[in-house]
Amino acid sequence: MSFSFWAVATLVFGVVAVVVNALKQVLFKDPNRPPVVFHWIPVFGSAASYGMDPYKFFEDNRKKFGDVFTFVMLGRHITVALGPRGNDFVLNAKHSDVSAEEAYAHLTTPVFGKGVIYDCPNARLMEQKKFAKSALTTGAFRSYVPLIVNEVRQYWLKSPQFFGGDSNRASNKTHLMTAMPEMTIFTASRTLQGREVRAKFDESFADLYHDLDRGFTPIHFVFPNIPIPATFNRDKAQRKISDTYMEVIRERRRTGDLSEQDVLNTFLRDAVYKDGVRMSDREIANMMIGILMGGQHTSAATSTWALMHLGADKALRDALYQEQVEVCGPELRELTYDDLQNMPLLNNTIRETLRMHPPLHSLMRFVRHDLTIEGTRYVVPRGHYVLAAPGVPMIDSQYFKEPLKFQPERWLEQKNIIDLAAQDQDYTVVSKGAKSPYLPFGAGRHRCIGEQFAYVQLGTILAMFVREFEWSLPNGRAVPTPDYSSMVTLPAEPSDIVWTRRRVGEKKY
Ligand code: HEM
Ligand SMILES: *[C@@H]1O[C@H](CO)[C@@H](O)[C@H](O)[C@H]1NC(C)=O
Ligand SMILES: *[C@@H]1O[C@H](CO)[C@@H](O)[C@H](O)[C@H]1NC(C)=O
């Protein structure tokens, strides 16, 4: 009796809420607010259609509303601003008006730890980025390339999917979404954090970082402390990893050996803020987690997409091999940083991969003060969020001809790129500012510091593949469609390639 009463009451309440919500949207349109994407379920809003395929969601609504519109997702009001102007509006907004920390900290702080990135005032983040950037010099990159080459070789030798100790294995199938994250974290930790940190990945670090990963998901973006095992394991792993970095730091301070050109040493030497405060060892430890995580999923996704596109394009693979031979000779001497600088096709393969598959589809800011959108009568109120989607103009035929074709050559000759600079002073295709259709690394104060490193890491790894292997997608399969269910845009499974060695037995791996 009382159960059915409550059941009926809940149902009636639900129906009323849905109807009121629908009527409100249809009847009350505030001309000073961006148009709102229609949604049936209050609070939940457009979470499903946005979450499943954000680019389709953006495109569908752009057709209805133009470049600016608002959607509701799990209680948040998010205003999307598309196109180069939208990029500029969101990414170059003043820090007094919008903040990244209030949009991201609930997700990132449990993963990185306290006192760094979004768990500190923005002025501190700006200085932390400067410290990190100061480590990433040409000199450091020169020393990194041989380290990456060596890591890639060691990986092939140890990985069961590659040579696994049998250097004469002539072919096999490899699951890229297993292999590339591993190669990424080994190469990044070895170069950015040094030998001892890299060695930890042969022990417990790999599993602990796995646990961190599993606590860095869209679910945790919405419910940061949802009581599931993934959340508890995340917190345990964060503490253990941070403590391990602390041990490494103490050991380096004890021996006084700061000779390696890694980012950790730069922090140990130079991380003193302008007001004289020195970063604590705990903060430096947490910063190391932030830096590794910042580059991990982004770079692993990018190398996977690149290898998939190359697997589907023999002519491009051949051209890249030819480039290796031209720069390094028919014997393919060991790759150096300076060689990479002479390989424009390799570089443009990375650039084109990031155009079609920027790892991050949504860059968000919390709105701290009512924000007028220039050139419109719209005001985004305090408490809402704004969202830039740099990936949208990157596949818009207004800026890139045949945008869904993977064509690294378009960058070589700047062909199939529509140069708006010629039409409009405000636009440049690859500009330092934010009003650009090509921004895979973001723009403005939160712009990525890892771009150069990513090119060195990805360039070296891809060059190693080109030199050693021929490969293709199994059964003549096409490049997979994107999967948006994790924090970065990944190729949908299966992410396998089938490889054969170019010259079995010639090189002693
Ligand atoms: C292909 C590789 C990468 C891509 C596509 C990428 C992309 C991005 C993007 C789009 C942003 C801006 C986020 C926003 O505005 O909300 C960003 C910020 C950042 N990235 Fe990267 N990233 C990559 C690699 C790396 C690497 C290797 C590192 C570390 C060495 C790194 C460290 C950072 C840091 C510290 C920020 C600044 C966050 C802020 O200021 O709020 N990234 N990255
Ligand atoms: C391919 O790799 C698997 C491990 O993933 C291994 O068991 C198998 O022997 C390899 N096949 C060849 C032909 O080397
Ligand atoms: C490759 O791209 C990076 C990043 O955009 C750039 O700094 C570098 O100069 C480029 N190198 C070549 C050879 O084009």
Automatic annotation (TrEMBL):
Gene3D superfamilies: Cytochrome P450 (1.10.630.10). Its EC number is 1.14.14.154. Residues 1-22 form the signal peptide. Its cofactor is heme. It catalyses: 32-hydroxylanosterol + reduced [NADPH--hemoprotein reductase] + O2 = 32-oxolanosterol + oxidized [NADPH--hemoprotein reductase] + 2 H2O + H(+); a 14alpha-formyl steroid + reduced [NADPH--hemoprotein reductase] + O2 = a Delta(14) steroid + formate + oxidized [NADPH--hemoprotein reductase] + H2O + 2 H(+); lanosterol + reduced [NADPH--hemoprotein reductase] + O2 = 32-hydroxylanosterol + oxidized [NADPH--hemoprotein reductase] + H2O + H(+); a 14alpha-methyl steroid + reduced [NADPH--hemoprotein reductase] + O2 = a 14alpha-hydroxymethyl steroid + oxidized [NADPH--hemoprotein reductase] + H2O + H(+). Pathway: Steroid biosynthesis; zymosterol biosynthesis; zymosterol from lanosterol: step 1/6. It is an enzyme of class 1 (oxidoreductase). Keywords: Heme, Iron, Metal-binding, Monooxygenase, Oxidoreductase, Signal. Pfam families: p450. The keyword Signal applies. It comes from the Eukaryota. InterPro entries: CYP450_sterol_14alpha_dmase (IPR050529), Cyt_P450 (IPR001128), Cyt_P450_CS (IPR017972), Cyt_P450_E_grp-IV (IPR002403), Cyt_P450_sf (IPR036396). PROSITE patterns: CYTOCHROME_P450 (PS00086). Belongs to the cytochrome P450 family. This is sterol 14alpha-demethylase. It comes from Myxozyma melibiosi. The lineage of its organism: Eukaryota, Fungi, Dikarya, Ascomycota, Saccharomycotina.
